Amino acid sequence: MDWKRRFYSTDLTRGKAYYRDGRVHDLIEADLGDRLMLLAKVQGSRLYRTQVIWFNGDIITGDCSCPVAAAGRTCKHMAAICFAKEEEERKRGSEDEERKQREQENLEAQRQSKRKQVFPFSEPPKDGKYRYFRFDRLTKDFLIYDTDLADAQPLCSEVHVDYGYDNHESQKAAPRIRAYMYSGASLTVTEDGITEVRCRNWSCKGSDTGFLDKESRRPCPHTLAMLLEAKRQALENDWGDATSYGASRILMDFSPEGLTDLTDDGEEPAEKTPMLRLLPRVSVIFGNVHLGFKIGHAKLYVVKDIDELLRAEKAETVYPIGKTDEANFANETFDAASMPLLEMMRDVQRAGRQITEQMPDKFYYRKRLSRRQ
């Protein structure tokens, strides 16, 4: 409630001036259970004895020895008492906040004083397998405390990890892991290092670098959470290989199957190389939900026309990808992970035509299947 609505504006203005001028003396609070009685002396043309009943930020009634209060209404002396009470509560609230902040800082200082340095990435693999992404080597210069680890572990569930190849030309493309969080943190892990580290969370002091202390290389909780989740998924999925992506394409041509294709009499058709990749993409444009796809080798490009792509795949002809790449379906096909997406594209094409015919006011099918909101 707002006690000011009980007063005329002129009384509020003069009462505030009285309070600021220090004319409120001997303010006493008497506890009446769920409300307070405020008693004070207010210096006007003479000294007036004033009281109000204060309840939950409002006044219920009041009294004063001045002529205005004797006439049966609130006065500037009562307003002066209310301003004094309001300021007292504001200061008390500010002091409480400062006290809580000091207590929190003391607890954090005690917590930091007991912290111990840990090495969550230093344990070598026990299965003897080759590891392309050596997190133990990449993080050997990091300064990580057990308190940092405790703060980071709950954040791992918010981390999204993407594995693929960098954007260099295909013969030099190498495996990489990208981890990101919707809160504004991201990083990239390659064989040689951890790059593009960013954290724009307001709680992290080193928001531009992802490190709390750039000199000591102490990662913030979000950076540490992304590294933990990237390592977990890399080990779980055995990501990375000993060769570059481009070299692996060349080696496939000289595999035993490829050599057989070069030396046979041509009666058996050569198997297609599964090097093409597909990824789904969902976007909302002007209130319409669009389902699209990306296609490519090392770098993926948007599929602008599903019909054209499916016709090229069925006829085993060439489909252009971007400005310099192409998919030659005569001797290559999609990898195993992309085959379900190819079937989805075929389903989308069929379903799009059926939906458009049955409910043209809600759906339309051109190059994508979209729904009007």
Structure write-up:
The protein has three domains: 3-109, no CATH class; 135-237, no CATH class; 274-371, no CATH class. The strands form five sheets. Strands 11, 12, 13, 16, 17 and 18 form a six-stranded mixed beta sheet that branches. Strands 1-2-3-4 form a four-stranded antiparallel beta sheet. The relative contact order is 0.07. It starts with 8 loop residues before the first helix and ends with a strand. Helices cover 35% and strands 28% of the residues. Strand 3 (47-55) and strand 4 form a beta hairpin. The longest helix is centred in the N-terminal third of the chain and has 38 residues, at 76-113. Helix 1 crosses helix 3 and helix 5 (146-152) packs across helix 6 (221-237). The protein has helices at residues 9-20, 67-70, 76-113, 135-138, 146-152, 221-237, 245-253, 256-263, 306-315, 339-358; strands at residues 24-31, 36-43, 47-55, 58-64, 160-165, 175-181, 185-189, 194-199, 211-213, 218-219, 273-285, 288-296, 300-302, 318-321, 325-328, 332-334, 363-365, 369-371. By secondary structure, the chain is of the alpha+beta class. The model is unreliable at 242-267 and 355-373 (pLDDT under 50).
